[in-house]
Amino acid sequence: MARKDLIERSLSCRYLAAHCYIKQGRYEQALSILGDENPTHLITSSHNARRKLAHVNGNPSRHVTLRNGKTSHRSDRIEYSEERERDREQEKGIKFQAAMCYLRGLCFAKRNAFDRARECYKDAVRIDVQCFEAFDQLMKNSFMSPAEELAFLEELDFESVQHDDPSVAQEAAHFTKLLYTTRLSKYASPTALSDATETLSTHYNLADNPDLLLTRAEVLYTQCRFHEALAITSSILNSQTAAPIDSSSSAPGMASSLGHNPTLYPLHLACLYETSSHNTLFLLSHTLSQHAPHEPYTYLAIGTYYLSTNRISEARRFFSKASLMDPHSSAAWIGFAHTFAAEGEHDQAIAAYSTAARLFQGSHLPQLFLGMQHLALNNMQLALEYCVAAYEMSSGTTHTGEGFDPAKVLGGITGGDPLVLNELGVILYHQSNLQVAVKLFRQSLVLAGELGCSPTAWVATRANLAHALRRLGRLDEALAEFDEGLRTITGGSLFNPADDRRIELYNAGPSTLADTARSGGSGAVAGYDDRNLIGSIHTSRGLVLLSMPNRTHEAVLALHEAVRVLGGDASGGGVASTLLGRAVEIWAMEEEGEEGTMAQELGTPHATQSPRRRRRFGNGNEGRATRANDDMSTGRKVELGLDEAADEVLGAALSSTLPQGR
To answer: 72: helix, coil or strand?
Structure first.
């Protein structure tokens, strides 16, 4: 081609030469052939040319009427045929121009010029709406926010899809738009996504299509229905007809995979991680290391296995290897950052999350994780800013620059990530803005219900709501929320506190593996599994019951259950044991007081309290609070996040139980 100067004279040869350079990893040479500028003038002319061609194809028997009233076909059929051929050649040229815009975007992405890469991909789809490769790059690399994705989809001219039969062309345009809708962010428009998936499954009989099944699995994953998502991804892996491999996402010289689409593996690995399928993760990692040792998802699988078994340093090493092999793998970058968060290395985690936020500008997850890390460092203002940015990206709210307005958040939300609202509520809780925190927690639960999320995945958010109500003094409502949380977690399937950052038992290390995944993780990394969550709720119930009159006996039972569930370890059992001991003492004094009252009514002398017992309990609230505070510190009060409300409850209960004047 170079010897005969075909690269300069032919669009198809220019495209072929650039594609060959990209396959060889010679992106600079490819870009020199393609040029730096996109042919944006074709965006409108391409649509007009296609409509003209469709009109010609739909009216092949054009004729004229002579003066004598007789109809005669045109004599210049040859000219008509040449015009039709020119239109077809123009259509081919438009496709090649769009394909070269796509290749230009790949070159810019390799140079980390993501803004220019995004514009190249968008222009490619605008010029040729059937350039699916460019649209796929926009979606899987999160170059746009959910709101921007919806707006971009609406501006595309699907009517430019042409066919010899006009009715078939209209059907093809509708099919293309439905297919593109399934690739949008799962937070963009849940209703539109559900309708598109249902139409493709029923009307077009694509229920067993691997791409459509993958979309269903992604939706289930965002809803925290991990076992159902795992069943779908496993069925895709076990199917005989595997999706074709996207070779453009793999570096040159890599070995072939097991025959499945590489985009399937991050979601499948995340499902295995969330369901604590350690043995399956080990087997899959071993299989991939044998059959696809040069693929980035192989190292992603190994890192996921080590992360699930709490071997953080090994997981970090393999996540780092995966990110080096594929710098645009969101799962590898997020997993790499999670390893620092799991060990409490907040500064390094912030640096890794910041890199992920720069690479994946349309995903709200890096912003959310940055907010979590700043919340763990008690940087409330920065945490609020990052979480507000994550809320705006996930829900499509326009940034006004006027700061956080809870009224806008509490308005009619049609999409977004409920976890973002939970995190905003946590921040406002720590800032003592309890009224708004309660509303945000409630809105998070409502939105989770609208998205069809599993109720067990939001038990900790309900616990957050109950704690906020407790601090507001609305004890009956708080107790009702705790009871509802216990009914949900014990009545449903085994719960893994995946995506919740609890207030009183707060842990700053998130554990999500991919950008299509839900934020959160298993107990192996976050430190709290279902046993700890149930025990902490029982402990919180005991605190609430101690604050309520004449319910000390119920508080003792709740705290006893907490100790039974948690045990005596440092994950919360020590605090529960301390509170149980104090509650038993309060209960004993109440019983003693009741016996004294009954004795006075019956005229029987009642034994007075000994000086030793009086010294044991003290004469004021200050001494009791000091001792309670010391005991709480030995129970790792700071780590568990139990605030001073426990001491206040115990002090108030003791002072109300001791006889007056002592």
So the answer is: strand
Encoded tokens for 424: 């905003």
pLDDT value of residue 310: 92
The total number of residues written for the chain in this structure:
662
User: Distance (Å, rounded) from C-alpha 54 to C-alpha 31?
Assistant: 34
Contact predicate 232/220, CB 8 Å: yes
* Residue 213 and residue 230 in contact, taking contact as beta carbons nearer than 8 Å: no
Mean pLDDT: which of 399-403, 415-419, 471-475, 509-513 is highest?
A: 471-475
**Residue 238 in tokens:** 């076990």
Residues in CB range of 110: below 8 A, 6 or more apart: 27
Q: How far apart are CA 113 and CA 120, in angstroms?
A: 11
Q: Give the other-Cβ count within 10 Å of 649's Cβ.
A: 24
Instruction: Report DSSP state, residue 455.
Output: G
| Stretch 645-657: mean pLDDT | 51
pLDDT in tens, 12-68: 889 999 999 999 999 999 999 998 888 888 886 445 544 544 444 444 444 444 445
Query: Which DSSP state fits 36?
Result: S
- pLDDT tens-digit series, residues 127-180: 999 999 999 999 988 888 888 888 999 999 888 887 767 778 888 889 999 999
For 416, phi then psi, to 5°, come to 120, 175
> How distant is the alpha carbon of residue 384 from its chain centre?
18
Contacts 24+ apart (CB under 8 A), 392-400: 392/145, 393/145, 393/146, 393/362, 393/363, 393/364, 393/367, 394/146, 394/187, 394/364, 394/420, 395/146, 395/147, 395/187, 395/420, 396/145, 396/146, 396/147, 396/150, 396/188, 397/147, 398/147
Cα distance between residue 442 and residue 445, in whole Å: 5
**Distant-in-sequence, close-in-space partners of 534: CB < 8 Å, separation ≥ 6:** 486, 489, 490, 565
Return the closest-CA partner of residue 162 out of 100, 97, 88. Answer: 88
How many other C-beta atoms are found inside a 10 Å radius of the C-beta of residue 477?
17
Place of tokens 């569930």: 565
Q: Scanning the structure block, which residue is given the tokens 């109720």?
A: 455
Pairing of strands 63-65, 71-73: antiparallel
CA 291 – CA 237 distance, rounded (Å)? 15
Alpha helix locations (H) across 111-209? 114-127, 132-140, 146-155, 166-181, 190-202
Beta-carbon contacts of 127 under 8 Å, excluding residues fewer than 6 positions away, are 39, 42, 43, 46, 94, 97, 98, 101
Angle between helices 418-430 and 380-395 (to 10 degrees): 160
pLDDT of residue 132: 92
pTM comes to: 0.75
Give the CB-side neighbour count of residue 625, counting CA atoms within 13 A.
13
**β-bridge mates for residue 63, sequence order:** 73
Cα pseudo-dihedral 160, 163, 166, 168, rounded to 10? -100
Considering only CA atoms, which of 548, 535, 546, 547 is closest in space to residue 575? Answer: 535
Q: Which residues contact 301 (CB under 8 A, 6 or more apart)?
A: 265, 269, 281, 284, 285, 288
Q: How far apart are CA 161 and CA 305, in angstroms?
A: 45
Give the rounded distance of the alpha carbon of 71 from its chain centre.
66
* Cα(471)–Cα(645) distance, integer angstroms: 8
C-alpha distances (whole Å) from 205 to each of 169, 201, 208, 524 are 19, 5, 8, 41
Phi, psi at residue 641, to the nearest 5°?
80, 15
Question: How distant, in Å, are the alpha carbons of 350, 358, 458 from that of 338?
Answer: 10, 17, 21
Q: What are phi and psi of 73, to 5 degrees?
A: -70, 155
Type of residue at 484: E
CA–CA dist 547, 553 (Å, integer): 12
The answer for 396, left when phi > 0, alpha when psi is -120 to 50, beta otherwise, is left
